[in-house]
Design brief:
With about 280 residues, the chain is of the alpha/beta class. It is about 20% helix and about 30% strand. The chain has two domains: about 5-95, Elongation Factor Tu (Ef-tu), domain 3; about 110-215, Rossmann fold. Bound molecules: flavin-adenine dinucleotide (FAD) and FE2/S2 (inorganic) cluster.
Amino acid sequence: MSQSGPYLEPATLVRREFLPPGFWYLTLRAPQIAAAAKSAQFVALDLPGTFMVRLPLGIYTVQDDTFSLLFQEWGERTRRLASLAEGTAVSCIGPLGNSFRLPEERTTRATLVAGGLGVAAMWLLARELHNAGMDATILLGARSANLLVGMRELQIFGFPLDVCTDDGSSGFRGTVIQRLQALAPPGVLYGCGPPGMLRALCAYANDHGITCEVSLEETFGCSLGTCWGCVVPVRRGCPQGTGYPRAESETRSFDVARVCADGTVFRAADLVWQT
Ligand SMILES: Cc1cc2nc3c(=O)[nH]c(=O)nc-3n(C[C@H](O)[C@H](O)[C@H](O)COP(=O)(O)OP(=O)(O)OC[C@H]3O[C@@H](n4cnc5c(N)ncnc54)[C@H](O)[C@@H]3O)c2cc1C
Ligand code: FES
């Protein structure tokens, strides 16, 4: 383990807030994880109750010795997490995964593209860009205005926030990709959101020769790099791939990488999207 973790640490729920129509914003105290967290990293939570694999959730915001989570109730694990009382401690491993890389040239203008709960990967990135004195624009998209989350927390950095909704109920009518196509191409792109959005973002970046990194979400088993349940295809030669030489009989042209341990962040140029 490096000094930056990951740590196995009890995280104490200090604040829970319901955000209609179905989101939760939880603040947990875990000093080691909070101190080490970087953009796009996640925690794996062991929730009290019947045995289940740990729940991976992105580290959203960090303040002092606390970090926050932003999530929607989907199934058993998120329901359990949402129902925890303040003061409860949960076993937490984190921070896990790699991070977005900032451009070496500090004058490069960054655009952060977040779809839905993909915004959870963006607050720490916005803070890192802000602390580095860099300029950024944030494109935030959702299907409808009532599903837009994250604006309140992201506003504190003072970056322009460009809101897009599919139905036009707030901001630009259309997707974040359509909005991006209408703007001057940025120097660097960062994305997190649903697969279709990320695929379109990577295609846009590759077509325009723009450096782009995306944080992927897959269904995780162990969250720790051991089960190989979360692999995605990557370009052969990509540093995040297995690097295993191709067997003579092998027909596939790509390598694979584990999203939990080799990512979650990958360069657009290294991802191989399959239909
Ligand atoms: C690295 C990483 C970071 C993540 N960060 C976040 C985060 O910050 N916030 C967050 O809300 N989630 C995040 N997720 C997703 C999260 O881990 C869970 O998969 C999700 O919250 C559902 O968990 P569950 O056990 O409650 O539901 P499950 O029992 O897994 O699912 C219940 C039902 O909901 C459906 N479902 C589950 N997830 C989704 C989805 N995303 N969209 C549509 N239907 C779905 C399932 O198909 C199933 O029918 C992240 C996942 C990864 C791998
Ligand atoms: S979830 Fe087990 S290796 Fe990624």
